[in-house]
Structure formats: structure tokens, C-alpha cells
Amino acid sequence: MDNLSQQYIDHLLIEKGLSNNSIESYSHDLSVYIDFLYKNKIENINQSDTTTILSWIIDLQKSGLSAKSRARHIITIRGFYKFLIKEKLISFDPVKNIDIPKTGLVLPEVISSKEMSILLDSVKTTNPREIRNAAMLEILYGAGLRVSELVSMRVENINLEASFIRVFGKGSKERIIPIGSYACTKTREWMVSGRPLLLKNVPSYFLFVARAGKPITRQGFWKLLKKYSKASGISKKITPHTFRHSFATHMLEGGADLRSVQTMLGHSDISTTQIYTHVSRDYLQKMHKKFHPRG
């Protein structure tokens, strides 16, 4: 079974092109399941059935996992069995009729456009690192990027003349995202006035560099964001993902259609993007009341 598990992980890595973080998550969930099978004297994957899956889910619940975490584990195992059937390694899917636990609608944390402006304007640009930080924050919000996409950006991936960036997201899927004047201005300042001074003639492909031409790490960026959030006086908890959620919400509030926002965020399924229609529900209700003849 360990061999089958590795085949599935190889499939996700090579054919699906999932990120390292996703691969680690799938590997962990699979190992938990395989360990459960061994503990229950199941040595062959064909010996597992729906009762086995239900027992495993109960075991996950007893271990203290939340409904959201259990749902993630089930999704992993569901994909595993689908792969085994596709490869004709088994003939029956024991997960097929198992329902995923309802996790409830978890609305993303967002900040208002006014709060976002306060935060972005609070960044001073008196030295190369501050110029870099200002550009990173503008790009993060201006394009709705994941933090991993931001820190891995290369110089060749940005076109300031045409005002767009190329991003390689989950599964190495490429998308083209327009960026606004603020992001372009700050990034141009970084590339002309900040980046050369910070690099000190050290070559680097990466757009946002730290020491010795290496890209700034996700952890390093988190620390910077925490510092600027505190300095701006905003009491809400702000993370890099808050910028992404705020980007999507503000786009929809401004009149962008859901499909366009889906494309810019890089969501493969529009149902993932639809959560933002819930976030902006209050705004939409206000607009309806204000503009509808019978609002």
C-alpha cells in the first residue's frame, strides 16, 4: 500500500503539477490513512470497503480533528481511490458514497478600501528595503496574489509598459493579471532606485530580493506585513491572504464580474470564487436599496 500511495503522489507531482505545499499535505493525509489500515490489520488496499472508510472517519473525529480538517482528509482519500480505479488497480470505490462533513461557510477576513489605503500609504520609502516593501504590498493587493506567487516573481514576469504581470500559480498554471498605476509606479521606483542598491552587482532573476540576490521568504514578508499593519493603527488581524481576499471583494464591489475575478485569482472552479459574493452581500444590499426604484 505504501507503493500505491507513492504512485499517487508521483501522479500529483508529475502529471498534476501540484505545489510542494500541496504535495506535503496530500502525503501527510495519505500516511495517516495507510497507518490506520495497517493498525486494523488491512494489508491489501482491496480489503478496504465503505465500512473501513467510515471507521477511519470516526477515528479522525475521535483524534480531535475539526470538520474542516476531516473534509480535507476525505478529499485526499477520494482522489487516491479515483486514481486507483483509473489505473485499474482496484474495481470498487469505497469512498464514492461518503459525504464530506459540512464545515460551514468561513468568510475570508477583509479590510475596507479605506483601511487598505491607510496601510499602503503608511509605508515610508527612504531606503531600498522600504521601497521594495512598498512595491510588494502594492503588487500583492493590486493583483490579488498568493504570497508564494509574490515572493517567487521574476523580473521577466512583469511588464511595466503594458501594466501586467505573468504569474505561475497552483499546478504551475500561468495567468496574466493587469496591475494599476500605483503598483506600476512603486515597482518602477524599486527596479530603478532600490533593487540595484540592494543587489550591489549580485545577479538575480528574482524581482523582490533580500540578501545576496535571494528572494525574500514568505516568513520574512509576513514579518514585514505585521510591522506595517501595527504601524498603520488597524486593529484587525491582517495576513497576506487578507490582501488577496480584499482584492477580490473590492473588485466585486466596484462592479467586476465574477468570471473576471475568478481568472485573476487563478481559481480553477468558479464555486471557489463565489465565496466573495457572500463577503460583499452587505454592500450589494446597500446598493440595491440606494438605486432600485423599490429598494
In short, what is this structure?
This protein has 295 residues and is mainly alpha-helical.
Overview of the structural elements:
The protein is mainly alpha-helical. It folds into two domains: 2-86, Orthogonal Bundle (DNA polymerase, domain 1), CATH 1.10.150; 113-289, Intergrase catalytic core (hpI Integrase, Chain A, Orthogonal Bundle), CATH 1.10.443. 58% of the residues lie in helices and 4% in strands. It is built from 14 helices and three strands. The chain has a three-stranded antiparallel β-sheet with strand order 1-2-3, with no helix packed on it. Strand 1 (158-159) and strand 2 (164-168) form a beta hairpin. The radius of gyration is 23 Å and the shape is globular. The termini are far apart. The mean pLDDT is 86.
Helical stretch tally: 14
Work out the radius of gyration. Answer: 23 Å
Amino- and carboxy-terminal Cα gap: 61 Å
Class of the largest domain, according to the CATH hierarchy?
A: Mainly Alpha
CATH superfamily of the largest domain: Intergrase catalytic core
Largest sheet: 3 strands, antiparallel
**Beta-strand share of residues:** under 5%
Overall, the morphology is: globular
Helix content: 55-70%
Number of strands: 3
What structural class do the secondary elements suggest?
Answer: mainly alpha
Strand order of the largest sheet: 1-2-3
Poorly predicted runs are: none
User: What name is given to the CATH topology of the largest domain?
Assistant: hpI Integrase, Chain A
CATH-level-2 architecture of the largest domain: Orthogonal Bundle
Domain tally: 2
| Average predicted local confidence, pLDDT | 86
Secondary-structure element sequence?
HHHHHHHEEEHHHHHHH
